UniProtKB/TrEMBL annotation:
Originating organism: Nothobranchius furzeri
Cofactor note: Binds 1 NAD(+) per subunit.
Binding site for substrate: T123, D197, E222, K252, D256
NCBIfam families the record matches: ahcY (TIGR00936), PRK05476.2-3 (NF004005)
Biased composition (Basic residues): 22-31
GO cellular component: cytosol
Identification of the protein by name: Adenosylhomocysteinase like 2
Residues where NAD(+) binds: G288, E289, V290, G291, K292, G293, E309, N412
NAD in keyword set: yes
Keywords from the UniProt entry: NAD, One-carbon metabolism
Region (Disordered): 17-73
A Pfam short name: AdoHcyase
Length: 513
């Protein structure tokens, strides 16, 4: 394995040197060109081989086929498939639970007959999930939930492997919805399961193809934004199939949201800006699990961290963790970095942006691009200057510059990479949720939003403990009887929440609402 890694590094160095020999064009790009071309370069290791040629042809205008003659896909460049395959193989090494699930359940084919349409980040980790679903019997069609997070070489490897993938890094808004439509609207194939990240796929089907829900057995949603949309549909009586809220499962919220962001926030900021964290004043908007991870990482690097929060419970947690709770307007003139992670809209508006200091860095760690009011910056008096991939300087008439990352979209997956091991936890949870909804007898789940059973959360966690050579303590019969538990779990009741924020959502008495 070490020799393979060494060989991969050597190949990277050789190809990077060859890349640097290519002639480059000099000159300021227009805003529209810089936006459309933001996909062609990336400073993340996972996207280093992304095609950065001068070919401006949209993938929608290309006719591509894989080696087997199949053309039911739309990606940047099918020729990148070999490199994408190596990326997927590397990811497999850090996704032990998903590989174990693939091995254990492959003979049973618990997803035989399932037709899964997915809309998630298309990365090497997602590819491992898709290939696992396929090994368990499912057919898959996939689009990207973010216009900047697709790894083109991974999309190529999936297309070469026979998956119908419609995604490339740097899609326009029109491309984004076109890709989702191509996944859904296909002759002779209709989905019966939805795997969504952000709710855009679910929204599109409700809007354009509502009759499809007659055959859809369920929805699995993994993001705060998407779950919020599902609860809105449920409250309005418009949710016509069962939905599994993966975001609030313990294995997603306490690991992906917290630990993933704790590591990837620094990676995304460093790759895009080369910023020194020590002594910098940072305000983190939101102290949910994502905010907690960001704050912990920045504090450890010597940053002075402020927190904004609407929830008094999360606010109290921030105070007791040693962070000063403020309103954004109180510190906006002095901070060096502004990070949003609330899942809300218009957290940072034009008034805040106008009052920021010169060279203030603004970025978003929430799923949706609505947290920063980027639209308010597209005015004649402001100049946009693309300084590197995913990094824009927005220049005010007096010369002040605000550094905007990924145009307000998800920083870590747009500008860097995320820890594969943590994504293994989330992907395994998603796979189990799909299996549960698909195989559930009629009547078990009604047209509502459900949490993953606690037993499944514990099973996902136990599969990952093997990596650490960890040894669980077993209850004695006497101890199990004393606690009123089964020795094999579940060890916590379903109403028990590891997250105080989720506890507030699900158990607040009616008279407080």
């Amino acid at each position: 394995h070490q020799l393979y890694k060494l060989k991969h590094i050597i190949q990277f160095a050789d190809q990077k040197q060859e890349f640097n020999k290519r002639p480059s064009k000099i000159g300021r790009r227009s805003l529209s060109r810089s936006i459309s071309q933001s996909s062609t370069d990336s400073y993340s290791s996972a996207a280093s081989y992304t095609d950065s040629s001068d070919d401006e042809t949209s993938p929608r205008d290309k006719q591509q086929k894989n080696s087997k003659g199949n053309g039911d896909f739309c990606i940047k460049n099918i020729k990148q498939a070999d490199f994408g395959r190596r990326e997927i193989e590397i990811a497999e090494q850090e996704m032990p639970a998903l590989m174990a699930l693939r091995k254990r359940a492959q003979g049973e084919k618990p997803l035989a007959g399932a037709k899964v349409v997915g809309c998630t980040h298309i990365t090497a980790q997602t590819a491992v999930l898709m290939e696992t679903l396929s090994a368990l019997g499912a057919q898959c069609r996939w689009a990207a939930c973010n216009i900047y997070s697709t790894q083109n070489e991974v999309a190529a490897a999936l297309a070469e492997g026979g998956f119908s993938v419609f995604a490339w890094k740097g899609e326009s808004e029109d491309d984004f919805w076109w890709c989702i439509d191509r996944c859904v609207n296909v002759e002779g194939w209709q989905p019966n399961m939805i795997l969504d990240d952000g709710g855009d796929l679910t929204h599109w089907i409700y809007k354009k193809y509502p009759n499809m829900f007659k055959k859809i057995k369920g929805i699995v949603e993994e993001s705060v934004t998407g779950v919020h949309r599902l609860y809105q549909l449920s409250k309005a009586g418009k949710l016509c199939v069962p939905a599994m809220n993966v975001n609030d499962s313990v294995t997603k919220q306490k690991f992906d949201n917290l630990y993933c962001c704790r590591e990837s926030i620094l990676d995304g900021l460093k790759r895009t800006t080369d910023v020194m964290f020590g002594g910098k004043q940072v305000v983190v908007c939101g102290y949910g699990e994502v905010g907690k991870g960001c704050c912990a990482a920045l504090k450890a690097m010597g940053s002075i961290v402020y927190v904004t929060e609407i929830d008094p419970i999360c606010a109290l947690q921030a105070c007791m963790d040693g962070f000063r709770l403020v309103k954004l307007s109180e510190v906006i003139r002095q901070v060096d970095i502004v990070i949003t992670c609330t899942g809300n809209k218009n957290v940072v508006v034009r008034d805040h942006l106008d009052r920021m200091k010169n060279s203030c860095i603004v970025c978003n760690m929430g799923h949706s691009n609505t947290e920063i009011d980027v639209a308010s910056l597209r005015t004649p008096e402001l100049t946009w200057e693309r300084v590197r991939s995913q990094v824009d300087h927005v220049i005010w008439p007096d010369g002040k510059r605000v550094v905007l990352l990924a145009e307000g979209r998800l920083l870590n997956l747009s500008c860097s990479t995320v820890p594969t091991f943590v994504l293994s936890i989330t992907a395994t949870t998603q796979a189990l949720a799909l299996i549960e909804l698909y195989n559930a007898p009629e009547g078990r789940y009604k047209q509502d939003v459900y949490l993953l059973p606690k037993k499944m959360d514990e099973y996902v966690a136990s599969l990952h403990l093997l990596t650490f050579d960890a040894h669980l303590t077993e209850l004695t019969d006497e101890q199990a009887k004393y606690l009123g538990l089964n020795k094999n779990g579940p060890f916590k009741p379903n109403y028990y929440r590891y997250s105080l924020k989720s506890a507030l959502r699900f158990s607040l008495p009616r008279f407080y609402c």
